[in-house]
Design brief:
heterodimer; A: alpha/beta; four-stranded antiparallel sheet; globular; B: alpha/beta; 9 strands
């Protein structure tokens, strides 16, 4: 009985406002469709995967959501700390920039797109803290050291530049740089793409732990079904710019309904 | 606690000439708290299909599946996520884990997900692993390299870490030696005693007789067979 009461309490605190509400997002490149009429709600603490083949529009969609590419139509509403759900597309540029430095984070496929390659590892992490007005050098360095440790980069590498790091280390550094400000929503574009499988596993473990401990929500674009099975609660399948299927990750993978998803799932090589 | 009402399901294979295969019709069963119900029927009769429909990783064509008041057949993903976190546990036949994660953490994860303190969750995980005779030297290793029987026991430890009010068990005693089998049966008995509603698939007839209160033959749910 006590258990049931506790469940009810947890259910109540989960709230009734989604963290992100996407309404009819459409982006065309001339006559070609980037993504068409995409709508969904993302709730606090949820991880959503977006899968599809190259050119399916998944990266276009992610860039539209994160404010990197302006969509032709639609709305991307975010549950802001002070104003509740607000359309990030019609926000002032300065407000959107602040959001992308604080509550949002973006992990690029290629770490060099998300890092400053000529700045030390500690500097890469510290820079994002300074962008939200951290000024005390000792505290910034201490926090950077802490975060390097959390992504398993040895403290004695803090003054090395990312150019001296392996691909997997660069990716972990990019994650530290992004998460140091305690974002509520993380966009990830193929975060494990291009890494050795052993390094991928390590990164997956790290991401899963961080998502749980920090209670963050994430949208992960990938073509790797094994990655979404392990990381994502929910899954959206895209083809030719359209969402053809969505649902619980294991439901979409174990009982796919759409012809394209069935093809996708049955095409995975068994190891 | 678990109530399946007039449930049916078909698979449509779009890439094989859109073949439509009806696999279940008019399935109904209910399980009260403290009760263990065995699904029986020949291989391919739909035992696992029905179990997956209850867990929500197979969609339900028609009918209702109520688990602790949530209709799995109609619930939004986030409601099912919450149901699985707090109410509905599932011990599948195969362990599926993030590589590299230590066994101790794999078992503690359902507790961490429901907000248990880390120390308490790990202590509970270790107690379960010890009870299921997983040697202590393996606790800090990933279970991906373990033997089939060891993986099975890790999977059971994880499934029993959190006291779910509803539990689905798919062959929990397969590939276990007599000693471990007895331990698992005792754990199922304890779950019943604390009021868990359990649906299980057991090919092991002795285990089924020892622990199950009733049997439900799923072949009666095969489309066309009901008439």
């Amino acid at each position: 009985m006590m258990e049931l009461a506790m469940d009810a309490a947890i259910g109540a605190t989960a709230g009734t406002t989604p963290l992100l509400r996407v309404e009819g997002v459409t982006k065309r490149y001339g006559a070609r469709i980037g993504c068409a009429d995409v709508s969904f709600d993302l709730w606090p603490g949820e991880v959503m995967g977006i899968v599809g083949e190259s050119g399916s529009g998944k990266s276009t969609l992610l860039n539209c959501l994160a404010g990197h590419v302006p969509p032709d139509s639609g709305a991307v509403l975010f549950d802001t700390r002070d104003g509740g759900l607000r359309d990030t597309l019609t926000m002032r540029e300065s407000e959107r920039r602040m959001l992308s430095r604080t509550d949002w984070a973006f992990v690029h496929q290629h770490a060099r797109d998300g890092l400053r390659m000529n700045v030390s590892a500690g500097g890469n992490v510290g820079e994002r803290l300074m962008a939200v007005n951290a000024r005390h050098y000792g505290r910034i360095r201490a926090k950077a050291t802490d975060w390097l440790g959390r992504v398993e980069i040895a403290a004695d590498r803090i003054d090395d530049r990312p150019t001296a790091f392996s691909g997997g280390m660069q990716q972990r550094l990019q994650i530290a740089r992004n998460l140091v400000t305690g974002p509520r929503l993380v966009f990830m574009d193929e975060p494990t793409g291009g890494l050795d499988v052993s390094v991928q596993a390590r990164l997956l473990d790290l991401l899963r732990g961080l998502v749980r401990e920090m209670g963050l929500s994430a949208i992960i674009v990938t073509h790797d079904l094994a990655v979404v099975r392990l990381l994502a609660d929910r899954l959206m399948v895209m083809k030719d710019g359209h969402v053809v299927e969505s649902g619980l990750t294991d439901q979409v993978l174990d009982d796919p309904q759409h012809a394209y998803t069935q093809l996708l799932v049955s095409s995975v090589l068994q190891v | 606690m678990i109530s399946v009402e007039n449930v049916s399901k078909s698979f449509v294979l779009h890439n094989q000439g859109a073949a439509r295969i009806p696999v279940m019709a008019e399935a109904s069963l209910s399980v009260a708290p403290g009760e263990c119900v065995a699904l029986v029927g020949a291989s391919g009769a739909g035992k696992s299909t029905l179990m997956r429909m209850i867990y929500g990783n197979y969609l339900t064509g028609a009918g209702r599946i109520l688990v602790g008041g949530t209709d799995v057949a109609a619930a939004a993903p986030r409601e099912i996520i919450r149901l699985r976190r707090h109410t509905l546990g599932y011990v599948s036949q195969f362990l599926r884990v993030v590589p590299r994660v230590p066994t101790r953490e794999v078992v503690a994860e359902p507790l961490l997900a429901t907000g248990s303190a880390r120390d308490a969750a790990l202590a509970r995980a270790e107690a379960l692993l010890a009870r299921l005779n997983i040697p202590e030297r393996l606790w800090s290793l990933s279970p991906t390299t373990f033997s089939g029987g060891e993986q099975q026991r890790v999977n059971i430890a994880r499934g029993f870490a959190h006291p779910y009010p509803a539990l689905l068990l798919d062959e929990p005693t397969a590939s276990l030696d007599p000693l471990n089998r007895a331990t698992v049966l005792a754990m199922i008995g304890e779950a019943k005693a604390r009021g868990a509603a359990i649906v299980g698939i057991f090919h092991d007839a002795e285990a089924r007789e020892a622990i199950c209160d009733r049997e439900v033959d799923v072949t009666t749910f095969t489309p066309g067979a009901a008439a």
